[in-house]
Amino acid sequence: MRFVAQRVSRAALSVNGVPVSEIGCGLVVYFGVKVGDTEAQAKKCVEKLIGLRIFEDEAGKMNRSVLEVGGEILFVSQFTLLGDCTHGNRPSFTEAERPERAKELYDYAFALLSARIPAKRGVFGADMHIEQVNEGPVTILFEV
């Protein structure tokens, strides 16, 4: 399981020109599920996301979590995070979980996340258009 979290001042997600989700200050999280990943790993990812201290405190140090700053999370499924480019120039996605199981784990992780913090989601499997204003920029990659 892999995620990329980007600190943003705002972000908006649409599908086919129709607005789906929008957040203010917080994180845009791209979430990829690998073959064999489990609910325990999804829970660990959620705990890491909520606790990541990547927002500035009064002294300007990255010392606060998205929860502490009253931020939101836009949670987006992205199988391309599992792309392997070690052989040739066309990524292989053999490590990405089948869509049915990946959706189960994405939904599970989102349910855990949204129970603890204001969170919005993308549309699983859709061709999404995401506009975001990165802050910093701060981008964190995490793998369980």
Descriptive report:
- The protein has 144 residues and is an alpha/beta fold.
- It has 2 helices and 8 strands.
- Strands 1, 2, 3, 6, 7 and 8 form a 6-stranded mixed beta sheet that branches.
- Strand 1 (2-15) and strand 2 (18-23) form a beta hairpin.
- The chain is globular.
Any descriptors?
144 residues; D-tyrosyl-trna(Tyr) Deacylase, Chain: A; 6-stranded mixed sheet; 8 strands; two-stranded antiparallel ribbon; globular
Short description:
The chain has 144 residues and is α/β, with parallel strands linked by helices. Helices cover 20% and strands 40% of the residues. The chain starts with a strand and ends with a strand.
Number of strands: 8
Compute the separation of the termini in Å: 5 Å
Unreliable parts: none
CATH class: Alpha Beta
The dominant shape is globular
Summarize the amount of helix as a percent range.
10-25%
**Biggest sheet statistics:** 6 strands, mixed
Which series of helices and strands comes N to C?
EEEHEEEHEE
> Could you say what the CATH architecture is?
3-Layer(bba) Sandwich
* Structural domains: how many: 1
Helix tally?
2
Q: What is the strand content? A: 35-45%
Summarize model confidence as the mean pLDDT. 97
At the fourth level of CATH, the homologous superfamily is D-tyrosyl-tRNA(Tyr) deacylase
Give the radius of gyration.
Answer: 15 Å
CATH topology: D-tyrosyl-trna(Tyr) Deacylase, Chain: A
Query: What structural class do helix, strand and pairing data support?
Result: alpha/beta
